[in-house]
Amino acid sequence: MKVITSYESHQTFEDIKQVDSNGTEFWYARALAKVLEYSDFRNFIKVIDKAKEACVNSGFEVADHIVEVNEEIEHGKGAKNSYPSFALSRYACYLIVQNADPSKRVVANGQTYFALQTRRVELQDDEKFAQLKEEEKRLFLRNELKEHNKQLVEAAYNAGVESNLDFAIFQNHGYKGLYGGLDAKDIHTKKGLKKSQKILDHMGSTELAANLFRATQAEEKLKRDNIQGKDKANQTHHEVGQKIRQTIKELGGEMPENLPSPQKSVKSIEKEQVKIEKK
Fold first, then answer.
1. Whole-number average pLDDT of the chain
2. Same structural domain for residues 154 and 252?
């Protein structure tokens, strides 16, 4: 049983992340419980039990993601005591925040953080994706975003976003959340794009990935929470964008509005790809 040291309260999910000797990242349960505002660890164990069940149902071995350890907690005046705890993988943390108290705002932030972290690593671990050149990654992500935007349109429509104008307003709420208050027109100006150039066609792979995540998470939240009404749908999209922006900040990433805009459009890349395939 390994002894570990817990961090003080008021820290972010990134701050409490640990890395073992093999370079694998993980989190300690009591530290995570503190960040998720669970004052009684016994209540948090119930959430961990739900995560274990979800892990089994997903076809994974619990022992690969949730391991019993001893956690050393620092009290006043430097005193330390050891308590039973768990070492948690990123996936285990993701399952935990999905089963934690949804009324806690920090839990919603945790859902975004660990979902984004999991998606980032999935892309990094995907050998085929990793071998793609930047232009190929852009084309792949842009096509993914096109498909998920269709699903987002459907979810928004079911929530009460009906006309083209309504959806444009809805989209801008998502952009404003992710881009620190900038709407589509502001982003276009910020990037120095010409009038004929579309912002999505002149995004690099990192920025496209952030927008793809915004679209997928907004769609899921609209459906999961059964959001009804244009105003609530707009607010939901804005909040999702904000949470993703906050997560990028916690990870030390560049804000999307400050990322460079490639001059070659995704449409041009797509045309070149078609020509190559024809040859």
1. 86
2. yes
**In a shared domain, residues 41 and 135:** no
Q: Are residues 51 and 174 in the same domain?
A: no
Same domain, 83 and 141: no
Q: Domain count for the chain, please give it.
A: 2
Least Cα distance to 112 among 246, 226, 219 occurs for 246
Q: Tell whether the model's pLDDT for residue 157 goes beyond 80.
A: yes
- What DSSP letter does each residue of the chain carry, written as one string? --EEEPPPSS--TTTT-EE-TTS-EEEEHHHHHHHTT-S-HHHHHHHHHHHHHHHHHTT--GGGTEEEEEEEEE-GGG-EEEEEEEEE-HHHHHHHHHHS-TTSHHHHHHHHHHHHHHHHHHHHH-HHHHTS-HHHHHHHHHHHHHHHHHHHHHHHHHHT--SHHHHHHHHHHHHHHHTTT--HHHHHHHTT--TT--GGGG--HHHHHHHHHHHHHHHHHHHHTT--SHHHHHHHHHHHHHHHHHHHHHTTPPPGGGS---SS-HHHHHHHHHHHHH-
* pLDDT 10s digits, 141-151: 898 898 889 99
pLDDT in tens, 234-267: 999 999 999 999 989 888 889 999 999 998 999 8
- How confident is the model at residue 82, as a pLDDT? 83
Range of 28-42, 62-76, 79-93 with top mean pLDDT: 28-42
In a domain, 113, yes or no: no
- Quote the pTM value: 0.60
In this prediction, residue 251 carries a pLDDT of 82
134 falls within a domain: yes
